[in-house]
Amino acid sequence: MPAGASVGTGGIVWEEAVYDLRVPTVAIGGILPESWNRDVAGGYPGQYRDSSAALQRWDGTRWASYPRQTGGIAPQDALAAGEYTGQYRDEAGRLERWDGTVWRPAVPSTAWANHTDGGYCTSTSWVEAVSDTTGPTITATFTVPVTGAVLVTVGFMGHTGVDGQWSRMGVNIRKDGALVFGANEVRSATVGSKAMTSVSATSHLTGLQPGAVYTAVSAYTTSATSNRGWFDNRFIRVDPLV
Q1: What residues contact 189, with CB distance under 8 A and at least 6 apart?
Q2: What is the mean pLDDT of each run of 10 residues along the chain (242 residues)?
Q3: Three-class SS of residue 185?
Q4: 29 CB contacts (<8 Å, ≥6 apart)?
Q5: CA–CA gap between residue 161 and residue 155 (Å, rounded)
Q6: 3-state secondary structure of 36
Q7: CA 2 distance to own-chain centroid
Q8: What is the rounded distance in angstroms from the CA atom of residue 132 to the CA atom of residue 229?
Q9: Quick one: which of 93, 90, 94, 43 has its CA closest to 67?
Q10: Which H/E stretch holds residue 171?
Q11: In sequence order, which residues have a C-beta less than 8 Å from that of residue 88 and are 6 or more positions away?
Q12: What phi and psi, each to the nearest 5 degrees, are found at residue 186?
């Protein structure tokens, strides 16, 4: 009873003054039933109880809902942040993994970007956009799988402006805006004819940071400033290697 409690001072607030000291018990291996007093510690690590909302397990320190136990998958909206690195959760039907800082897709998916409006390039060095088009620079954002490796495919339908010259589409790989892998002729799709031609090229990139987010950005070049290379139906595709 609090000091000075009386009818004149409001009396006793029974809802707050009474504490139930009864503790439910159950044999080893049994599940504790729901009880009014849910602050009672478990009897041993591995004991279970019914909280009326979920099955919980005593880990020696706290009661943890079963789906959140080590090795379990937390249900939708159960966790804003992970409780340990490597934990999984269901996020709107997609499995995610806690990397210690943020949730990442457990199985990264293919990234795809394209545009069907054509444009031309007359630059003899790599540039990330073409002229005379309403289409934007093509960018495909992807998450690197645990292997640190991806397949990058670029392609377009186009032609050169001058016979005997060539035009190429490649890709720059950037992380937080910084260039990691620059476009080059080995990883590019090339046309060498004034006839309209469809081409593509796939390259294998390794050494990327697992779980990190990168961006593949389209890049273009041509063999001479007098050669107006045309690029249409441009696309980038990035496939994780898991």
Answers
A1: 154, 155, 156, 168, 169, 170, 199, 200, 201
A2: 72 75 81 73 88 82 74 83 89 88 86 96 97 90 93 98 96 97 96 97 96 95 97 97 88
A3: helix
A4: none
A5: 18
A6: coil
A7: 55
A8: 12
A9: 90
A10: strand 167-175
A11: 72, 73, 74, 95, 96, 97, 98, 106
A12: -65, -35
C-alpha span between 222 and 240 (Å, rounded)? 30
Q: What's the CA gap between 169 and 208, in Å, rounded? A: 22
Alpha-carbon distance 229 to 172, whole Å?
19
Strand partners, 98: 103
The phi, psi pair for 132, rounded to 5°, reads: 60, 45
Q: Hey, what long-range contacts does 126-133 have (CB within 8 A, 24 or more apart)?
A: 126/170, 126/172, 126/182, 126/183, 126/219, 126/220, 126/221, 127/219, 127/220, 127/221, 128/172, 128/217, 128/218, 128/219, 128/220, 129/218, 129/220, 130/220, 130/231
Who contacts 129 (Cβ-Cβ below 8 Å, separation ≥6)? 119, 136, 137, 218, 220
* pLDDT for res 64: 81
Amino acid at residue number 239: D
Q: How far is CA 10 from the centre of its chain?
A: 57
Tokens at residue 203, please? 């390259």
Amino acid of residue 127: V
Q: Would you give the DSSP letter of residue 124?
A: S
Distance CA 81, CA 210 (A): 20
First to last CA, the chain: 65
> CA triplet 86, 208, 184: central angle to 5 degrees?
160
